[in-house]
Amino acid sequence: MKKIFTLLISLLLSIGIFSAEEKETGELLIYAGLMEDHAIAAAKEFEKETGIKTKFVRMSSGEILARVRAEKNNMTASVWYGGPIDAFVAANEEGLIQPYKSPNAADIGDKFKDPNGVWTGIYVGYLGFVANKEILKELGIEMPKSWQDLLKPEYKGEIVTAHPGSSGTAYTMLATVIQLMGPEEGMKYMQKLNGQVRQYTKSGTAPGRMVGLGETAIGITFLHDAIKYRKEGYEDIIMAAPAEGTGFEIGGVAVLANGPDQVSAKKFVDWSLSKKAQELGQTVGSYQFLTNTTAIPPSEVEEIKGAKLIEYDFDWAGKNRKNLLDEFSKATKAEVPTK
Prior knowledge:
Blueprint: H1 2-14, E1 27-32, H2 36-50, E2 53-58, H3 61-70, E3 79-84, H4 85-93, E4 97-98, E5 120-132, H5 133-139, E6 159-162, H6 168-181, H7 183-194, E7 197-201, H8 206-213, E8 218-222, H9 223-231, E9 237-240, E10 248-256, H10 262-272, H11 275-280, E11 289-290, H12 314-319, H13 321-332
Parallel strand pairs: 1-2, 1-3, 6-7, 6-8
Antiparallel strand pairs: 3-10, 4-10, 5-8, 5-9, 5-10, 5-11
């Protein structure tokens, strides 16, 4: 009987019914890959509802991936919240994610969650072009409407995009082009586009703000970020989705492996998948499509709803991240910005 009991306990531990090593401190640190004001609102509301002291550090997806790699044996945060799931897939390949199937994931469509609980989607955002209509007018050029348009001579030195080595947004762009055009032609395109780019930024949200401020004519970014900036008063921002088709992000949430408070981390994941939590973003300027089938998305997404999307392969993009970034570096010689 004692032997049977021991085997039963081992089985329960192996399938995650309960874990002898699961930790709880009552304090939660989150690595946030979404907009800072969204992260502030989420941390504040979660702490209010649960009593768990919650803090966050806001970084781009590439920075978060680098940080959790460095902390693999001494993880500081317990949750990764927001940013494209390609990076989550890459992190999981290195054993940096603790799979967790939240009961609230029942309200999330199958295409917006990993079947093994590695990540679960909290929002969806479309990649596209933003431009300052007044600068376009001054330069006598039109809004680009396709990936090929960006290579036209009149746009040389007028384009800002983030670097795919630091930004999840820009990595989505890189993986989109490769999936759309094929490995060889896609990398040739990126090499040509590099010759058109004025500046690579560290963060994927920066190009939209720079366009709004009149610091550049054109940016490549997620369109919901451009909507946010326009509503903040940058009224000269206009948007377009590339005619050939564009990629998109599923913004994810996941429990980090060996985090200091995995119990609170799972509670946060549960909370982040709820209708109330997903609808919180639009109150602070985050205008993405939502993944919870019961949540009401912001009305602002109607403007970009008709964008032509490619069949973006997140699993492939995540597992081939290192190779694509190496090839991009060889093709463009562009260095990752440090600030």
